[in-house]
From TrEMBL:
Boundaries of every HTH luxR-type domain copy: 153-218
Protein name per its UniProtKB record: DNA-binding transcriptional activator UhpA
Species: Rubripirellula obstinata
Molecular function in Gene Ontology: DNA binding
One BP term from GO: regulation of DNA-templated transcription
Length: 232
C-alpha cells in the first residue's frame, strides 16, 4: 500500500474546499442579484436562460421572449460569430474567458464560464455580465483570460464618423481644441468644425456634456478603430 500523501501546511492553508450548498439556492442568489446579468447558452448559441438584467443590457427591454431562440435571432452576424467562437474556446479549454465591450452605447463586462454538466451534452456555458461606467477596469476573475473584441456598437454615437469619434473621445477626456489638433495632426479650425458637427449630431451643449457622455461609456481613442456592428 502506498503511503498517504502528505500535504504541506502552506497548501492546506491555501486550499478552499467548496461548501455543501443547495444548488437551487446558489442559482437563485446569482440569477436574482440586481445588476448582474446571467444567461445560459450552448455551443450552437441556443438561449436556455436569460435573466432580466441580461435582457436589459443586451436588448434594452425585459419584454424579450428568448424561449426556443438563438443568439442570432437578436444580434448581427458579426456579433454572433465572435460570441460563438468565444463559447467554443471556453468549452474546448474548460476555462473562463472575459471580454469588455461597448454594446448599444453601454460598457459591458462579460465572463463566459464552462458549465460542469453531470451528464451529456457538455456543451453549455453561463455568461455573467454587468454594466460598467467610466474607466473601470476591475472585475475580471483571476482565472479568466481577458480577450479583445473586434467590434463596437456606439449606440447614439453611431451617428458620428470615425474621425468625429476620435475628436469626441479626446475632447471627452478634457483636452482643448488646440491639443486635439496637435494629437490628430489637424488644424484647430478642422477640429473645431468636427466639434460643432459632434455637438449638433449628439445635441450636446458645451464640452462638459460631451465629457459626461464619453466618461460614462469609458471610451478610449483606440475604440474608434473597432469595426462598427450593424443595427441588429
Amino acid at each position: 500500500m502506498s503511503p498517504p500523501t502528505r500535504v504541506s501546511s502552506g497548501a492546506q492553508k491555501n486550499r478552499v474546499d467548496p461548501p455543501q450548498i443547495d444548488p437551487a439556492s446558489l442559482w437563485a442568489a446569482l440569477s436574482q442579484t440586481k445588476g448582474v446579468g446571467v444567461s445560459i447558452t450552448d455551443s450552437e448559441g441556443r438561449l436556455l436562460f436569460v435573466n432580466d438584467t441580461a435582457k436589459v443590457l443586451f436588448s434594452e427591454s425585459v419584454d424579450v421572449d428568448y424561449q426556443g431562440k438563438f443568439i442570432r435571432d437578436f444580434h448581427s452576424a458579426e456579433y454572433v460569430t465572435e460570441r460563438l467562437a468565444m463559447i467554443a474556446r471556453v468549452l474546448a479549454e474548460e476555462r473562463p474567458l472575459a471580454m469588455r465591450h461597448i454594446y448599444r452605447g453601454k460598457k459591458i463586462h462579460s465572463t463566459v464560464w464552462p458549465i460542469r454538466d453531470a451528464k451529456p451534452p457538455f456543451s453549455r456555458v453561463v455568461v455573467i455580465s454587468r454594466g460598467e461606467s467610466g474607466h473601470d477596469h476591475g472585475g475580471v476573475p483571476e482565472t479568466a483570460e481577458l480577450i479583445d473584441t473586434e467590434f463596437i456598437d456606439l449606440g447614439p454615437l453611431n451617428a458620428l464618423t470615425r474621425r468625429e469619434v476620435e475628436v469626441a473621445v479626446l475632447l471627452g477626456h478634457g483636452m482643448s481644441v488646440p491639443r486635439v489638433a496637435t494629437l490628430l495632426h489637424r488644424s484647430p479650425k478642422t477640429i473645431q468644425r468636427h466639434k460643432d458637427s459632434i455637438s449638433k449630431k449628439l445635441d450636446v451643449h458645451g464640452q462638459a456634456e460631451l465629457v459626461a457622455i464619453i466618461t460614462e461609456m469609458g471610451l478610449e481613442l483606440d475604440d474608434a478603430k473597432l469595426k462598427r456592428l450593424p443595427p441588429s
